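Troubleshooting: if your tokenizer reports a length mismatch, compare your output against this known-good record of 453 residues.
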Amino acid sequence: MEETQRKRKPLNLTEGSLFKKILIFSLPLVLSNLLQVLFNMSDIAVVGRFAGSVALGAVGSTTTFVMLFTGFIIGIGSGVNSLVAKYIGADNDDEVRSSCYASAVTSLAIGITVAALGIGLSKPLLLLLKTKPEFIDGAVLYVRIYFCGMPALAIYNFGNGVFSADGDTKRPLIFLATAGVLNVLLNLLFVIVFKMSVAGVALASIISQYLSAAFIITALFRTKRPYRLNLRNFKISGEKVKSVLLLGIPAGFQNAIFSAANLFIQAGVNSFDAVMVEGNSVAANADAFVYDIMAAFYTACTSFISQNLGAGKKGRILKSYFVSLIYSFGIGAVISGILMLCGKHFLAIFTTEQAVIDAGMKRLTIMGFSYAVSAFMDCPIAASRGLGKTIIPTVIVIMGSCVFRIIWVYTVFAYFKTIPSLYLLYVFSWAITAVAETVYFAVIYKKTVKNKL
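Known-good structure output:
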């Protein structure tokens, strides 16, 4: 019975209809990412409604800073996903196990490092971002508490990467949902009952992060699949640690680079009055809402391409890319349309102040026309990662998203000095980066098919 269970795959990514399989694979990820966004939004919503506009501005001012570091951790998880999926597709249990052990240790070490950096750099970076004086103390407090949860976030993303590599996206969803419900309840308890304001929502977040990490580690110790964790056989391969870092660090930098470029955008937003800063903070919740749902299909793209590469099924590699692109673009366009039509109702979740809602709509109106374009940039990046290539896509992102955005802020925005001229840089940077990433994926796909398959 145990052997049969060990050999059973949660979802076979190398056979069957790709449209059906990618949808089945992605739906739990969509729900998981959606829940994660909603639970994160609860921080903003609770402080905005029950702790006042200053607390709202303090938490909202940290969004870009937090994403700079959490994006890096999430990227490490993507690297784990790509590496483990390739060996699962090749049906190489020893390599799967070795990769999993190395990934666990590497992820934990990175989580601890990120926590230390975030706590230590919180005030200098928030001051560099020109955070409003009335927000700075609350923002620093929020970041320092929140970053204590980074090791747990790293462990959860490691486990999520492993399970997703095997086609199991349901268990991480269950774990996240359970922890997220606790997060919301603790937000309400700490802010409304205990009057803890900013500190309360930060504390609620890290408690839920450690709970989700505990769930996923327990599942990895109990699973019968080849990636089962066993302390008695726990061996770390330096070669596999190197592989995890080579795939994960560039992927992490890709995510962090977007946030680094957004630091300049946040500085531009902070040059306006407090109402505009608060409006930007509440409207920015839509970014995570759309991006994270679309990201489910990027994870599918990486997992399907990695497994089919390992299995030597070249015909499914390119098809996996196009199906993932169709889904991500489609859902991005649909959600954008809904947000544009119902934008004021969406923003009202986070604040009751009409002036803040009006300011938020200035961002939401422009971004609503832009979100779906990002699929043409992110999907080829995910596909390249599935082929084991992450360094060049990272360089392209640096040039197309980071350097371009900085130039835009100091030229176009500096000339017009309007909010629309600032927000338009997103769609232009995505379009330029998308062209370069697509060309690169086309080139390495041909080389991979010719040389390896």
